[in-house]
Amino acid sequence: MPSQILPVTHHHRGTEAAAMLIKAEIERDDPTTSLLISSEYEDVEKAITSIKPVLSRTSSYNNNNITSPNDSPGLGNCYQQRRRRSASDNSLSSLSGSNGSGAASSAGGSRRHSFSKDVGRAAAETFLVTRLSFKLLRYLGVGYRWIVRFLALGCYSLLLLPGFIQVGCHYFFSSQVRRGIVYGDQPRNRLDLYFPKSSDGPKPVVAFITGGAWIIGYKAWGSLLGQQLSERDIIVACIDYRNFPQGTIKDMVKDASQGISFVCNNISEYGGDPDRIYLMGQSAGAHIAACTLLEQAIKETGEGESTTWSVSQIRAYFGLSGGYNLFDLVDHFHSRGLYRSIFLSIMDGEESLRQYSPEVLVQDPNTRHAVSLLPPIILFHGTADYSIPADASKNFANTLQRVGVRAESILYEGKTHTDLFLQDPMRGGKDDMFEDIVAIIHADDQEARAKDAVAPPRRRLVPEFMLKLARSISPF
User: Which residue stretches belong to region Disordered (predicted)?
Assistant: First the structure.
């Protein structure tokens, strides 16, 4: 299949623009999708062109070592060649081993030598890929600030590693988790389901869209939330979607809509109650989920629009630390390292900001009928959130109330962007936001509320000093 080219235009301030021509293949998930970043300045183009062979080698290295033989014919040939070489080496080793102890000793030395060479080659290639990654970031206009943030992210993850290991064990080995359920025909169209231990009757359902700055989102990021909500008799569906540069916001909203459709139409087969489905998103996922919900409402009011799910199937929408007016956030993100040019590329250009700004769109008189279809909307935010200021949720809730939507914002004093979603849940004990969400879901279920009242406190996953240190260096 021919490669799909995603055009991305950079819009830097002033008269000078970054110039580049980089084709980035998405090896693991979709080798047919690539990114083209173009510019009109020839001098930097030449600089980029001069490193093309190196980039090609990097791409080849990644493909050979990650992609399976089924992903593409060309990559399959490389894979098969490596298999044949490996099989040949193994055959020679076994043959020499049958010729006596001296030969076996020689073969052992040869294997050790080969292992040493492999380690050296891997180290050299790792260094090469790392160096080129920093070069690519610099050419993209992602310089010192992003490099520092990546290093901070690594330290942050290391400090929370004890919790991640425990959550990961549950994710991979628990019988209460079903991973990778296909909901569409795109590579990232998968979702994970988290089930309660008890199966006595249909359970309420949360369809969750994870965050990740529209770039690093992944369904497993919701595993901690899924595990903890399932302990309160709630089924959680964590929906994966294409990230940039594999797709832009239009593709993300399309994937989210397909995932929600799957949940609405099939969750009863998994023990879920189709009349008690809640939509939730966190950070960038909150923005994507809000865009999806509003787009669906607009489709339902249009003539001749075919839909596979209805806004009326959603009992309520929960937005966690989300941003809903892109015009207010472009400069803020730019100041924090998500540069304007990249952000506009993610959002399909400056002309699309209005379309993907729910706060702006609900005020359009043409969407009045669609807005009336929206379910209750509850927005959660920490007042110390510097990634997306709490005003984003407050302003959106106020705007929704003015246009007749049942909406409210719940603010948590002193909480950061990651406190609500990671540090607090890993701390164990009582978690205010978690209890607020569960209380809303179980509001009409007296038996469930009685169980919540006597539920044991959640256990701590990470020592307190590590949580505090992680909070202080968090890049979010």
Answer: 59-112
So where are the chain's domains?
Answer: 149-473
For residue 462, pLDDT over 90 is answered with yes
Q: How far apart are CA 380 and CA 383, in angstroms?
A: 10
Q: Which of 223, 257, 283, 357 is catalytic?
A: 283
- 371: tokens are 């807005």
Cβ atoms of 225 and 231 closer than 8 Å:
no
200 flagged as catalytic: no
Residue 283: active-site member: yes
CATH superfamily of 149-473: Alpha/Beta hydrolase fold, catalytic domain (3.40.50.1820)
Which residue in 10, 287, 417, 442 is the catalytic one? Answer: 417
In angstroms, what CA-CA distances link 188 with 222, 244, 246, 323? 15, 12, 10, 23
The active-site residue out of 71, 251, 385, 419 is 385
The arithmetic mean of pLDDT across residues 51-65, rounded, is: 36
Q: Answer yes or no: 417 catalytic.
A: yes
Q: Please say whether the beta carbons of 346 and 215 come within 8 A.
A: yes
